[in-house]
Amino acid sequence: MAALAQGTWVIIADGEKALFTENITDAENPNLVVVSVEGSDHEMAHSKPSDRAGRRRDVGPGQKSAVEEDTWRSHARTLFVQDVANLLNRKGLKGAYKRLVLVASPQVLGLLRRRLHSEVLAKVVAEVDKTLTNHPLHKVEKVLQRQLRATA
What we know:
This protein has 5 helices and 7 strands. With 152 residues, it is an alpha/beta fold. The chain has one domain (2-42, 70-151): eRF1 domain 2 (Nucleotidyltransferase, domain 5), CATH 3.30.420.
């Protein structure tokens, strides 16, 4: 389970929040500490309408038709993941970390992979396709141990 060796950065992300953590102990008993927390702009999120499809009047009496859903939320998530990837690229190319573990939903993992620099991508030692951004770090550590042991 060398993926969680001391000094490994573990990025726990979804489309709105990213925790940058570092394991300060060994792989057998990981202890993640938060290096930084990145979040999307909540004010912008609250000022936008919900994702619920709208309705408009149709030509017939009393008829209404559905209007296509706004895609602003998915676009905002994509931009946020791109910002996370840019930050990882800057830090990784400057040597801030040697090993990287990505923890995110499959969609976010895919977006991250596409936007990471090849040198940074080479530092990725493991990926866990789970959304754990709102879990306490001690639970994240246990999930990582189980997941990485199962793939080893």
